[in-house]
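Take a careful look at the sequence and tokenised backbone pasted below. I need to know what the token row says about the fold.
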Amino acid sequence: MKTKLFSLLIIIILMGCEKENEYIPNPDQEIFFQLEYINYAWSYQHSGWMIDSSGAVRGFKLPKTWTFIDSNGFISSIDMKKNIEQLDTVFTKIDKDSLSKYVSKILNASKGKITEPKTEMFDAGSSLFSAFIYDSKLKKYKQVIIKQTGDLFIDNLSIEANEIYNWMTNIR
């Protein structure tokens, strides 16, 4: 009897630990994921999409004013709102369960080891797959690099980042 109770207690503890590493988003977080393509070869190209808290996948192409992530990996909520205002196309909508599944992986992805940039192509541009964690105290979004492909290759080696990347590449 003691063995069964002890086993049940261990299972409950392990289940609790798994939830501890899931990302529970701040209710003020508007954007969770972004794909951004930039190419300076031949002519300037800048396009991509963002997935918001409702699951809407909205795109942009050659936005007039765009605020990029700063050197510390942050963007203010004000600047993120300005970027959101430039989303001009709705591509699709992600269902709530799927969105929740991948949002919950952001925290562990943020702990992944990021590889050094490696030149792989020339003049192809770069596609950057990112997730975001909103810090309500700083009123800033922290970028989580998932993967960058194209001219420069950067990889997040966490399992969760790989799962998010595979999911994001299938969004149309």
